[in-house]
Amino acid sequence: MLPPDAGAHGGPARITPRVSSLLDAARWIAAFLVVISHLRLILFTDYAPGQPDSPFWAAFFFVCGFGREAVVVFFVISGMLVGGLTLDKLRARPQSVSVQRYLIARFSRIYIVLVPVLVLGCLLDQAGRHWLAAPGLYDNPSFDWPFAQIFAGNLLLLQDIAVPAVGTNGPLWSLAYEWWYYMAFALALLAVQAPRYELRMMWLLAFGLLCVVLPQNIVIAGGLWVMGVVAVLAVRHARPTRLPLLVPLAALAVLLVALRVLMIKQDFGFASLALGWFKQGLLGAAFCWLVLTAWRAPVAAQSAPPRWAALNLRLAAFSYSLYLTHVPVMDFAVGVLQRLGGRTLVHQPQGWVQFGWFLALLAIVYAVAWLFGQLTEERTAQLRSWLERRTARASGLAANDADRAA
Questions:
Q1: What pLDDT shows up at residue 2?
Q2: Is residue 1 situated within a structural domain?
Q3: What domain count does the chain have?
Q4: Are 138 and 168 in contact (CB under 8 A)?
Q5: Is residue 2 in a domain?
Q6: Distances from the Cα of 2 to the Cαs of 237, 295, 323, in angstroms?
């Protein structure tokens, strides 16, 4: 028996209100964890046993250490929403999946935020470097690269491939990973939909070459993206469950805490890299279990959106903008506040005044990201529709020219 959302009469899977709200919550919480981890690194020195200890500060430093784990969630969600749903739709209705529309959708989603972010980030970084003279904020080695080269490389999403992330905006590395997963998936779609054996082999060869050319870290992390794809495909074969959502949620929380404590307490030396990938795989699997449990709930539990659905949607709506804008904005804001206040805010010991600055800067970062999202991310559908109309018009003109030539 298929779950109620796995597609009536063999149709494509639907994201139920419950699953949608869960994914929204995961997106905004993951973005929040990334932001506070970077803000903590800027404002506070690392936690040390010699510093004044209290349960609050121990918890604060602990919670601010989940930035990498949050990126794992982003990759898995992307695999679910981009790869998993597309493959499930392809299985149910092959003619409804167009590689051209897929590429337009991915381009619209990424570039409507990326281009303005690159411009904004470069402007803030240059202003901060030349006018604020803030030690500890603008000493990134990427500033030594020729500007045109590094800007073009980031525009083409070649971070960690040919160039580093531009300026202070280190989080751009994960966007490049995402983009090349999209491109690899497009090649796989072309291979699946190819009408002839020769074309299928050509696209598979292109897929293999891309995997060989990409850096090893990008290919390995792609396993998390694939995990999300597999989770969606597994929905169709899973039976409905009455397992409370709190069970996989508690398991995920326990796993996060246990692995975090393990990585803090032990020095694994050369094994730390392999252990890090294993940890991320466990977290990805636990998150997939959580989503599948929500997806396989009985019909009655799926019919109405959860109580916090509206809040989750609002906070998730600008999570992409928040992720890409927060570092250059917070660095610039810290520099301005230092200049105006005449005091150093970077890498200070723990204290309530410094925590107050932490909260103030967090509010600034969120306000800027929300406004930025209203101007960019909120208009993704409009850009996608415009590009689809333009490509359809160009295809029509090309077909007319071919008919006249014939």
A1: 34
A2: no
A3: 1
A4: yes
A5: no
A6: 6, 11, 36
